[in-house]
Amino acid sequence: MSFKEIKELRQAGKLDEALQMANQALEAEPDNIWNKRAAAWVYYDYLKKNAQPNSFEAFKDNLIKIKDLQLPEDEKMVFDNCAWHIGSLVFGLQKKEHVDYGKINELFEIIRDFHFTKPSEAYSFIYKAFHKGYQSWSNYLTFAEWWDLENLRSDDFLKEEYKGKKMMSIAELAYIAYSKKLLEGEPLDSFGQQRVIDKEKIQSFLPKLDSLIEKHPDYQYPQYFKAKLLLALGNDENVLYAFLPFAKQKRNDFWVWELMAEIFQEDKDIQFACYCKALSLNTPEDFLVKLRQNFVEMLTEKRMYNEAKTEIQKVVTTREKHEWKIPNQILQWIEQEWYKTATLKKDNSELYSSHIKQAEEILFQDIPEEIIAVEFVNENKSMLNFVKDKRKFGFFNYSGNLTKPQVGDLLKVRFNGDGQDGFYKILTAKKSESNVTSDAMKDFEGTIKVISPQNFGFIEDIFIDPKIIEDSKLTDGQPVKGRAILSFNKKKNKWGWKAIKVGKKQFN
User: Fold this and answer.
1) In terms of Cα–Cα distance, which of 206, 85, 93, 184 is closest to 139?
2) Least confident of 188-202, 323-337, 416-430
């Protein structure tokens, strides 16, 4: 009885005879590695034949027999071949309407002692299969830690393609799934009603998540889950800046602003603005019932009862449409006197709009504000010229950010990168506080010198435009005071000062 003979019987499809011969050889020499190999490959052939859900017990039995052979670690070929069929069966089990996770747990327990090649395509296939049902699989965290995300291949970090559409890489999916399970927590009882978050696991996982974010900045969602994990740790200091890159990319998704509201739970005004922003976005009502209910609590605290009633009605309408249960909290509000006397509005869009800007400003907190002076305003085109200093000046469109800016206004602006041919894009803009100063503005006083016949003037080095002289009825030698702005003279190709406001100086 030799390895070669058993192999020939296998290849001829005579598995029962091959198994009989392999068992005889094992009985005679149980520690002979060739005998173990021969038996393992016979069990593998049985395994392959039974790799479908309706033959689960037979598949499991042969898997156990391979395990019981206790093959050494270097016998990876058998295990790697098994991996493809284990994965196929796990995928098959999850196609059932009611997935039997007990069977998936059984398979996992058996293969924990298998010596797969790590990393390898076969080992990644194992991960993909067990990962598919992670949301409902209570043992997923244990599986992921056993599999170890350090075993992902370079190919696993590449986006996959399905029906011509680019999909997330398995690596990104793996990190997201692990994050979700950490946030979900582990059950404290058999019913899973009480759960606890393992903060030590989160702390050890965060550096790995940071590494993923650094190496793959094109991945979007890891940044979101980093923020969620930091929140779970109570690390409020870093959570915002961890979340901002993702929030900027996904600013039109309501749940981004829902999380932003959670980040700012200590600042009720900002939290309120975040809810307004979330509800202003184009989102199916089915996804908003929880958000609207939370918003009602804030509205009632502010005694905005008309608005609260309007939100409640939207929640009730959506829940009744789907025959969902109306929460007790909603029912209690409906019985309140304030609800009965409140006026139902068409919607709260006006309320949302009035707070959107405050919410959006949060996105750009990591970008410093710059003080600029308004040099010229074109109201028809909603454009203004500005100057910060001799190095930075130009123009931008202010629509949606400012209402009726005036020449001489000092603004706090966040720029979106550098300007192109003097044109800048802005992220935020607002009028500055009255006590703010700028190197581009200065107050002056002195005696005006009017140049005839052009009728322009100077006060030392400050140019006075003819229109200002005419409008203010200024005359040569008259004492005046005013404000000047730094300005670039294209004709002379040099910087100077020009008056934007001049008035007659009054003497006591």
Assistant:
1) 184
2) 188-202
CA distances from 391 to 145, 150, 263, 387, 388 (A): 54, 49, 37, 9, 8
Q: Are 435 and 470 in contact (CB under 8 A)?
A: no
Q: With 50 as the cut, is the pLDDT of residue 508 above it? A: no
Please tell me the CATH code under which domain 441-504 is placed.
2.40.50.140
| Residues 298, 268 contacting (CB under 8 angstroms) | yes
Q: In this predicted structure, what is the pLDDT of residue 190?
A: 60
Distant-in-sequence, close-in-space partners of 499: CB < 8 Å, separation ≥ 6? 444, 459, 462, 463, 464, 465, 468, 482, 483, 484
Strand partners, 159: none
Please identify which residue in the block is written with the tokens 């990190």.
Answer: 175
Distance of CA 399 to CAs 381, 428, 430, Å? 9, 11, 12
Average pLDDT, the chain: 91
Going by C-alpha positions, the residue among 401, 336, 400 that lies closest to residue 372 is: 401
Nearest to residue 238, comparing CAs of 249, 251, 247, 229?
229
d(CA 236, CA 264): 9
pLDDT at 287 over 70: yes
401 has a pLDDT exceeding 90:
no
CA 9 to each of CA 30, 195, 214, 447, 467: distance values in angstroms, whole numbers, following the listed order = 21, 54, 54, 114, 106
Query: For residue range 215-247, what is the model confidence (pLDDT) as tens digits?
Result: 999 898 999 999 999 999 987 678 888 888 889
Confidence (pLDDT) at 1 = 56
Written as one letter, the residue type at 32 is N
CA-to-CA distance for 203 and 56, rounded, in angstroms? 39
| Paired residues of 497 in beta bridges | 462, 486
- The residue ranges of every structural domain in the chain are 3-249, 254-361, 367-431, 441-504
pLDDT at position 291 is 96
Residues 82, 129: Cα–Cα separation, whole Å = 13
pTM of the model: 0.74
Distance CA 114, CA 34 (A): 18
- Please indicate whether the domains covering 367-431 and 441-504 agree at the CATH topology level: yes
Q: Could you tell me if 477 and 448 are in contact, meaning their C-beta atoms sit under 8 angstroms apart? A: yes
- Taking alpha carbons only, the member of 98, 89, 80, 100 closest to residue 56 is 89
Please state the rounded mean pLDDT for residues 59-63.
Answer: 96
CB atoms near residue 194 (< 10 Å): 9
Q: Quick one: average pLDDT of 481-508?
A: 86
Q: Which CATH superfamily is domain 367-431 in?
A: Nucleic acid-binding proteins (2.40.50.140)
